Amino acid sequence: MHNRILPSNTTKNYDEHNIIKRCDKPRSNCLVSHAVRVYRLFFSRAFIYALFILVIVFILSLQFSYDLNDYFVGGANLSVSKDPKNTDVVLREAGINEERDKFRKKMRGMKGKPKKLLKSMAKSEDNFDPLTGLKNGIKYPTEILPPASGMTSTLQRRRLDSVGIITTTNFGWDELYPWIRYHTHIGITAFFIFCEHPANLWSSFVTTFKTFKHDFEEGGVLVHLVYKTPTIERIGHITEGNVLEYCADREICARVVREGWLKKWFNGVCNAELFVRQSLNMEEGIDLALKLKDAQQLDWVAHIDSDELIYPGIGGVGSTGDANLNLRRSLSLIPNHVNSVVLSDWEGAPATLIPENSSMFEAVTLFKKNHMDTIDALPFLTYTNGKSIARLTPTLRSNGAHRFKGRGTRKKWKELGHAIDIVVLHYSYSKPTTAQKRGESGFSCGCSPTLSGAASCFILKFDQEVFIKSVLAMNGTISSEEFDIWYRRKVVYSDSNANKLHLKSGRMARLTLPGEIFKLYDRSVGQS
User: What's the confidence (pLDDT) of residue 431?
Assistant: First the structure.
């Protein structure tokens, strides 16, 4: 069959359908045919709708990712000086954090970021005057907050978020008082302390506490003590059958039993039982915090141990130096849709043996950074999954000793997986006597100093090893010198040259400000 030749005067009027029909013949016509097909595809309704949806999804995902990562608060570097007229700590500005500026320069490359975060920061609360800082006629701390990175807007004033801490402890008052005072400096305004002190020490503890209670109240700080030792001694090991007797409000424990999330930890001993007690104390602490939410203006609540410190302002700090200690400011800049924030833990690394009568908070200045904060992190002795801090809402619940959760709500729980500028400093086994007491606690739980016995009582491998070694030292199987040699090898970082390399590589940080604050308050306890 011969190809049909088009007259020259009809070529321009030849429609696309005829070209497609002749596509299997001349090469030039086939190319035109493919071009027509592509033209039809790109200008079809289905393709335009699909493209529009993809663009919208991309913009939303970009906004969500930006909001989570753009709450960075570098803040000003702070140092400590002593006011000659007062034993209090004076925090003074010493400059602007350079790393914060670097971070913001990187983020400025993203144009057209929605101003949702700024609007949420600027939003006034009920009865709160953003210009005067007054709420219901009462003056609350306020601060001019900068706009988020990349935004050009006037600065906004709002009340800084306030924070409460829940903890379970058997610390004496000489250790607990500076711990409380340190946290009041970074912005904590309420403490819910569940005490497990021996009965013979409780009376003197309360007597001493009462001498300081007025000072706390004058400073607007709530310290609420809950004595748990009688309950623990009465019910013994916590089981699913007697757990209702542990909580002051039986409904709180009944709610936990109904949900079943803590069930696998019941009937455990030592670490497992402590985990249960801490989780239940968190439930009670949240309930107490909600009852006092309006009176104390609480916005956030955290759960940490009494051998831990919350340390804000770490974002941008290199291997040395201390940064902004303003937890309230850091939390005030977190986007409103975030329910909780994970705080990575940095583990204390004592450079020498710390005597029993010395404070570990003063003596330890070196800290191993978490794997979330550095590459090739040094090995930790204990946990590495951090702690968390959460917004105080009626649906807030414990999710174990390290996390919070929203229960009884259909809203998706939104957790920021890593805080940029807040960490928890963990002074784990910082003193040899702390390690030695592990043997005593194991014996009180009925644990046997064998590999299987230690594994049944303690969750972490190093806890198991410490228990066995401390028992061997207690019964004289190994000498105290041998125990110290083992402790130095496992815990102490005494090689100054190696420490310098760790600091230079960013695997360690040297933080001196917490110790300076503790020194001032240790003296104030002695003068009382």
Answer: 92
